[in-house]
Amino acid sequence: MSFVDELKQRKVFKVGAAYVVAGWLAVQVASIALPAFEAPAWAMRAFILAVLLGFPVALLVSWAFDRTEHGLELTAGRRFNLRLLAICAGLAILSVGWFFLGKTAVDTEAPAAVAGAPATGTGAAAPERSIAVLPFRNLGGQDATLYLSDGLAETSLDMLARVPGLKVISRSSSFTFRDAAIDVADAGVKLGVNHLLTGTVQPAGDRVRVTVQLVRAADAAQLWSGRYDRQLTDVFAIQDEIASEVVKAIQIALPEGGTAALSAGGTRNVAAYEAFLKGNQRLWTRQVEDMRAAGDLFKQAHALDPGYVQAETMALVAELLIASNTVGLAPAESKRFLAAYDDILRREPRLAEAYIARGNVRGRLGDSLGSLADYDAGLALSPNLAVGHQWRAELLFFDLERIDEASAAYRRAMELDPITPQIRLAFASALVAQGRPVEAMALMQEVREVFPDNVNTANQASRIALQTGDFATAFRTLKATREAGGDATRLTLSTCSALVDLGAETDAARCLDAAARLPGTEDAVRMQRITALLASGRREEAHRLWSGLSPEQQASDEILMVVFGPPRMGLAALESVAPGLLEQPPRVRRLDIGLYGVAALLLQRDGREAQAKALLEAGLARLPGAPDYGDWGVGWSEAFARGLQGDTAGACAAMRATIARPYWLSFVEAQAFPELDGLRAAPCFEAIERERRAKVDAALAPLRAERLWPGAE
Predict the structure, then answer these.
(1) How many CB atoms lie within 10 A of CB 338?
(2) Distance CA 227, CA 320 (A)
(3) Average pLDDT, the chain
């Protein structure tokens, strides 16, 4: 009997076909069930592997056993066929190989696909229990009352966001539909929801009329509507009723405590509430002056009602954001914020925003596990806070190095805030740091299609392109954003900065000359000229120019402060971004690889030789598996550290390996610090630097004809 005939006789083909069908159905069920239970990214792959490995087992069982009235029995005299064993072994090897070797391809595709879904409308179906609250239309006809219509919509959104099991899109995405002729189905697809809450607000003296509708996105069918003609003092009752009725219409139970639990830390003081709404309207522009005004309004709300804990919390949040976007946050200031949030949470332990803000502060102080606990506590109370998921993702990635969990948290944040660029920018930074620049650039392109004039996106996309050696994309992105209406001054300065980093002296000088003619660029141009002098090895000239600056100007550039300032000021600057570096023993995170050498050098200058030596050794030991990207990737960091140790041969070997890869920019640090004079004088360094400059010049030559930067010829 032939081998094929034996397979038929033993019903191997029938069993195999049945297994394939059953396995396929099991995978489909798992693909729905696992995400619903927030299973980690690897769980689906492991399930598929188990199904694949079961296939050859099923074939072997079918061959070796007979089905009898007593159940399965081993067929007498039946031996395994070597050909069947070889086939089954091959299938098992292919399955295991797919699991391990195919991981990179799957990981590469997943983030871009998930991230792109909301913006492009090509993602998976929205969850049934999902909603976006669109900005309520203000029928009062006065901008002065816009805060009321926005505030009612936003407060309704915040209350709904605390309901377990309900997906609620963040304000920053849903409010992009303001004053637009809304196509309900299109809005539902772009926001990734099945339901939309819309409304109108018409204030008249001390009264207000509010009309609200809950519609199904797929067909614009009205599921519920409510109309409220009330005194302004009843605005709080209106919010409670809206939240209760919407939750009932979508058939999701309110948390224990009903709407009272949704409004923890709130107020019943109308004047305080108005001040809070006005503050909220100003805060989320993320412009420093607006944030200052918002902070004052939150303080005013708290003064009007000392029990208004939400206003007290948001006043601190505004202060925290202002510090983060200006002078930075020293450890002493972080401790002050920590004490304030501790006090708030003692008084109101149900306030999700306070947990999220305290988690951010704890992370700044190096308490990673405490920070994670706060994020988890805040998101348990309000699971739809997109910024909470984003900050949690950043902690998981940069501090705790739990990459799979961080990626899932980033994707959850993007799902809740699918339109605005901030979270995609943060995720792109993490992808670059992970050595996945192609995916990061795909995210940047998605954002640029929606916001072609967004300067932050253009700067980040340009930086990624530079780090991967794609100079054409880098400079074309900046120019295209300028032409689309982006801030010409900021984009010009970014263009000049890229040329400075590349060490393109002539091009950088011409660009800076053009930038200097733009209003308000004097300080920024001066700082870039100092960096350009350092990059070209003219350290004394750079120091003279820096010394002529005021103390405030000197402190405005942390890098130059590290190069020229007192070592303790430089160490304080590094401690604010990487506190573990200065612990004893030092803690070097994967993303601190670019900082540990500079920190060690400053410790040497400060007379702490033993601590500097321990930090260098810890950093070098951390290099295997660290990210290899950009000017602060593994190669330059190793060269810097070995140069400090006096290991010229090791430093040059690291530089030579780095310049052979696409992830490279200039090595300004070697020119900036006299401690590396020995390395700079080595013949190998000179040869590598000549090769680097030749590569830069060859890459820029065809781009000058496109006039991608000011002064290009």
Answers:
(1) 18
(2) 39
(3) 81
Nearest CA-CA partner of 474 in 513, 514, 516, 502: 502
Contact assessment for residue 355 and residue 377, using Cβ atoms and an 8 Å cutoff: yes
Residue 229's identity, in one-letter code, is D
135: Cα separation from own chain's centroid = 26
Q: Is beta strand 207-216 parallel, antiparallel or unpaired with respect to 195-204?
A: antiparallel
Which comes out higher in pLDDT, residue 150 or 413? 413
Residue 66 CB neighbours (<10 A):
14
Please list, residue by residue across 207-225, b when 16 or more beta carbons sit within 10 angstroms of its beta carbon and e when fewer do: ebebbbbbbebeeeeeebe
* DSSP tag of 263: T
Chain segment 393-407, per-residue pLDDT in tens = 999 988 888 888 998
Q: How far apart are the first and last CA of the chain?
A: 81
CA angle 72, 77, 81 (to 5 degrees): 90
Reply yes or no on whether the pLDDT at 119 is more than 50. no
Integer Cα distance of 379 and 388 in angstroms: 7
Question: What confidence category does residue 412 fall into, taking pLDDT thresholds of 50, 70 and 90?
Answer: very high
Question: Among candidates 483, 426, 431, 488, which has minimal Cα distance to 457?
Answer: 426
Of 39, 192, 115, nearest in space to 423 by CA: 115
Where on the phi/psi map is residue 390: left (φ > 0), alpha (ψ -120 to 50), or beta? alpha
Q: Please return the burial class of 378, using the count of CB atoms within 10 Å of its CB with bins 0-12, 13-18 and 19+.
A: buried
Q: Which of 472, 393, 471, 470 is closest to 433 using CA atoms?
A: 393
Task: For CA atoms 627, 629, 633, 639, give the dihedral sign.
Answer: positive
Element (H, E) at 528: helix 522-535
* Cβ proximity of 239 and 154 under 8 Å: no
Task: For residue 487, give every residue at least 6 positions away whose Cβ sits within 8 Å of its Cβ, in sequence order, or none.
Answer: 455
pTM (2 d.p.): 0.71
- At residue 122, the pLDDT reads 35
pLDDT of residue 497: 92
Q: Is the pLDDT of residue 604 over 80?
A: yes
89 in Cβ contact with 56 (< 8 Å) = yes
Q: Rounded to whole angstroms, how far apart are CA atoms 273 and 252? A: 28
State the pLDDT at residue 666.
66
Q: What is the pLDDT of residue 145?
A: 61
User: Tens digits of per-residue pLDDT, 216-267?
Assistant: 888 888 888 888 887 777 776 777 777 777 777 776 766 665 555 556 677 8
From CA 298, how far away is CA 315, in angstroms rounded? 5
Q: Which amino acid is at 112?
A: A
pLDDT of residue 365: 85
Residues 6+ apart with CB under 8 A from 346: none
**Of 34-43, 238-247, 608-617, minimum mean pLDDT range:** 34-43
Give 37 or 86, the one with higher predicted confidence.
86
**Left (φ > 0), alpha (ψ -120 to 50) or beta: where does 403 sit?**
alpha
Three-state helix/strand/coil letters over 147-161: HHHHHHHHHHHHHHH
Tokens of 124: 């998976």
